[in-house]
Amino acid sequence: MSTVRRTLLLAIVVAAAGGLAFATGAAVVDGPADTFAEERLAVQPVEGPNGAYAYLNDDDEIVVDVSGSNPKLPSDFEGVNPGTLASADGVFTITYTADEYARVWIEHPEENVTFVADGESIEGASNNITLGPDETVAVGLEVDARGAVAGTQLGGDDFDIRAEVADPESVDSPDTAGDGDEADGGDGASTTVSSPVPTRRQFQGSDFPRGEWVTFDAGAMEIVGGDVTLDRVRIESANGRDVAFETVGRPEPFASAGPMNDSRGAAPVGYFEFDHTFTDEDVSRVRFSVSVDRDYLNETGADPDDVSLYRRSASAPDGWKRLETERVDPAVRRLLDLPEDRVHLTAPTDDFSVFAVATDRARIRAADASLDRGAVSAGESVVVRATVANGGRADGARDVTLTADGEPLATQRVELDPGERTVVAFEPTFDEPGEYDVAVDGASAGTLAVGDPANGDGDDTASVGDGTDDAAATTDPPTEEPSGIDPSNVVGLAVFVAIVLTAVALVRRMPRS
């Protein structure tokens, strides 16, 4: 282990009466950083009010300046108020970017200025803070200006950040991952990576420190050509035993797992298989590092923020379990000198089978469509409503279309987060009489009957989607009950009676035998 010292500039001036006091607040920012300890430590001003007290000079070195000379502060700023005990949380951050951990502290002998983290001093080795991989701590100031007069400079001219770095970054350059290359994985661990073909890697490791992580460089193993690659595999050794495993990548699914079908809309990009001989007693966890070309994502219409890793799992609802995928922070990517034109992801797993790189998509669907009434007269409007929900894993937008007999009538743009739902409403007008099958994005709202006002059709006479023959229902005359004798019926009856009487007379005159 080595101890690294870095001297930084410090300027704190007590202002005349009426000077400004410290503000509070902190936020970690991405961007340029002052780096040291072989670029394993990065120091940055925070984004927020107190971040104005720190800046990077022309040499990208951090400067803490609480005086009128600070270019980030207002022109009328002179320093801290005299006679006060002031504090500023989160002036700058320290980020550790390697794979293991580091102990960090600040050396500053002056008593009236103290560097703190979470309200506790981090001055001196005994007050060090331990940072894990990609972990950040916000450092603030406590300034005792009691008894100081205007114009006094507090804290001396500089301060030292010291880091005791252990288990340094073990990621080798991708160029070193060849056919049978060996590397020191850290703390004496030995790793060997063989690459017989671009889509296959064979890994062997020995002399692992128990309970520690060891990194294998996969040398950009191809999953989908060079567009999607497996870059590193990290193993957490449980007992220090030797390990051996193999990975194979391909765009198509493996027969042992089948294709990925996710009901929540994730679309597979490529697959890789993890074949191993070690047991759960040998290895606690594995972490994969994968990268995807940004142009490739643009061509496929995928959002870089929506790329995730999945593992084949028989117990998962759709047979695939989404892993806790993290995107490498841009500041860390720059510090590790990773390609800027790629999206870099990491995901841990404690179970091993076939894995998929997939893009989470929105899955926006309309349902529960309805009409506010089933019949209207021509020229009248009707309200059509539908519930639109995003059942996918990513936010998204979609044009929702109202149709009548399959013909589009109107469209609304809907934007929804994962799991969010909303109700859309349309109010179309139908000018031609008839029946229309109304739907919203394929979800049926029912049949609308539009009547002819000239014939008295409309709300009171139209029938809606009940399976009856409307022509017969509207053309058959109504049945009437008799209420008297019509004169034309009297004449007919008289004629009929006369014919009967004549027939009777003729019968009587016929000769009898």
Automatic annotation (TrEMBL):
Domain of life: Archaea
Membrane-spanning segments: 490-507
Composition-biased stretches (Acidic residues): 167-185
Low complexity: bias regions: 461-476
Residue numbers spanned by region Disordered: 167-206, 447-487
Composition skew (Polar residues), residue ranges: 193-205
Residue ranges constituting the CARDB domain according to the UniProt record: 374-440
Sorted UniProt keywords: Membrane, Transmembrane, Transmembrane helix
Record-given protein name: CARDB domain-containing protein
